Amino acid sequence: MPHAPQHLHLHAADGYRLSATRYPAHGAVRGKIVIAGATGVPQGFYRRFAEFAASQGYEVMSLDYRGIGRSRPARLRGFRMNYLDWARLDLAAAVDAMHTPTLPLYLIGHSYGGHAFGLLPNHAKVTAACVFATGAGWHGWMPAPERWRVRFMWTVVAPLLVRLKGYLAWSWLGMGEDLPLDVYRQWKHWCSYPRYFFEDPAMQTETARFAEVRRPILACNALDDLWARPNSRDAFMAGYRNSPVQTLDIDPKAFGRGPIGHMGYFRAACQPLWEQALAWFSQHGARHA
Question: What SS3 class is residue 274?
């Protein structure tokens, strides 16, 4: 079947073996897309979007970051890594695999995927990025009672799970994939700052690289997304200070397709948002050509 997804493996710069899926474009290839997923979300979650984009003439690649999904080791307890590896090693490998000088390469980011773009060592290979649900993660940007629920999670529930399992057993709570210990620790630490890792003194070298990113970014956030509302998005996206950043606030009531929240952007009901993202890509693809 010429349009069937192709499961393959990538090798990051440090040799780690990653599971990825390539979705061939239907007909003439208009461009390529790499999907940068959210924390604890396996690549299969983005299948519907990938298939739709492929039907519109885009070659698409998704991947599981190390420690997640089909890139998870046999034993997660004792598995050590850096949260930043998902961007500067894993996602970077997908960008290298998809890049070609004759076609524009776009990035679709979900939550962490919007953080990852600025951490890529090869971000210049990306023509433009559209990110959904990217925010700073600080509980103070969230409405009550969500902020109190999140604080309870960070200070009570998560530490108990980590002590018991040696990693964040998120699957026990039905909240996604289990997370490696180091991802949990770094994520929790950065979420204590209103502007996430931009306020962490230990991250100055990494965050300074965000100023090198000059590609256009479309940042879309739903008003019913309790974790990444527009105020949280704006606090983080300010780090892309030399990029032309366009923001889009989505009112689910006006959108008329039901609630969106933090995860609904990639459900089938949100296909109009996908169409809008691809149309925005096509504008920048013309500039690339």
Answer: helix
Is residue 164 scored above 90 in pLDDT?
Answer: yes
10 secondary structure, DSSP code: E
Kind and range of the H or E element at 186? helix 181-190
Question: What class has domain 6-284?
Answer: alpha beta
As a whole number of angstroms, the distance between CA 7 and CA 16 comes to: 17
**What is the C-alpha to C-alpha distance for residues 241 and 222, in angstroms, rounded to an integer?**
23
| HEC assignment per residue over 104-130 | CEEEEEECHHHHHHHHCCCHHHCCEEE
Residue ranges with strand state E in the chain: 6-11, 17-23, 31-36, 58-63, 105-110, 128-132, 217-222, 245-250
Angle at the Cα of 183 (from 105 to 243), degrees rounded to 5? 35
CA-based radius of gyration for the chain? 18
215's tokens: 């590609």
Angstrom distance (rounded) from CA 280 to CA 255:
18
Quick: pLDDT tens for 5-21: 999 999 999 999 999 99
SS3 category, 141:
helix
Q: Quote the tokens at residue 231.
A: 């105020």
For the stretch 61-84, pLDDT in tens is 999 999 999 999 999 999 999 999
Cα separation values, 170 from 3, 97, 150, 166, Å:
34, 31, 14, 12
- The domain limits of the chain are 6-284
Separation CA 78–CA 196 (nearest Å): 26
Q: Which of 225, 221, 38, 198 is nearest to 142 (CA)?
A: 225
What was the pLDDT predicted at 172? Answer: 86
Do 19 and 7 meet the contact criterion of CB atoms below 8 Å apart? yes
Give the number of other CB atoms < 10 A from CB of residue 81: 20
Q: Is the pTM of this model over 0.90?
A: yes
